[in-house]
Amino acid sequence: GESVGLHLPTLSVQEGDNSIINCAYSNSASDYFIWYKQESGKGPQFIIDIRSNMDKRQGQRVTVLLNKTVKHLSLQIAATQPGDSAVYFCAENAGANSKLTFGKGITLSVRP
Amino acid sequence: DAGITQSPRHKVTETGTPVTLRCHQTENHRYMYWYRQDPGHGLRLIHYSYGVKDTDKGEVSDGYSVSRSKTEDFLLTLESATSSQTSVYFCATLMTSGTEQYFGPGTRLTVT
After folding, report:
1. DSSP symbol at B60
2. Segment B2-44, tens digit of pLDDT
3. Residue B101 is inside which H or E element, if any?
4. Which residue in B has a C-alpha nearest to residue A95's C-alpha?
5. pLDDT tens for residues A16-71?
6. Beta bridge partner(s), residue B111
């Protein structure tokens, strides 16, 4: 069936470097994509979203890029900080009632 | 965080017993969702509600039922808990015109 997946299970970066987290999706009908951050013991927290009619969207220190041709989504975090250490999920919405399909998650570890 | 609370936050129960988890929101959001989170699977949708008394199945609904008798409460019931239902359960809400789902803090359920 349709699924959302991530290329790497873990990512370790040096504090101050930029981080790039990648996600592949398979449902070409998806029209909305979200990145969530989940800290240990907490629920997922919205980071940034993008609609399928866009290819780039910027937030505070974060940028999401969407490449519909290859069904690829990425999250870029500038000047990664220790507080960015968490599990990151991509999610896609392709159905009614805003149901989301989540990827399996990737752990971002920031080295001091 | 859309004023979402989940209760209980932790529960240990025995196989075969019924269990009900409660999600309560204070923002009058129309949509509510129940997810389970397991290692290697990310977040998977169990059931969702698009209004009072309006519910539908998600990806992994077998063994679960839900009820929504008022806007602020969404109950998830395991009629006869099994060990495979050991998981962390998250509730999420979405306003009618919104796109971002807000998540609660989660309930850790252990079935022995």
Report:
1. T
2. 699 999 999 999 999 999 999 999 999 999 999 999 887 789 9
3. none
4. B58
5. 999 999 999 888 899 999 999 999 889 999 999 999 999 999 999 999 999 999 99
6. B13
In angstroms, rounded to a whole number, what is the distance separating the alpha carbons of residues A25 and B108? 29
Q: Considering only CA atoms, which of A7, A2, A6 is closest in space to residue A26?
A: A2
- The length of chain A is 112
B58 close to A99: Cβ distance less than 8 angstroms: yes
**Token pair listed for A80:** 């990664």
Q: Are B81 and B14 in contact (CB under 8 A)?
A: yes
Contact yes or no for A45 and B103 at CB 8 A = yes
End-to-end CA distance of chain B: 32
CB-based contact, A111 to chain B, within 8 Å: no
The three-class DSSP label of residue B34 is: strand
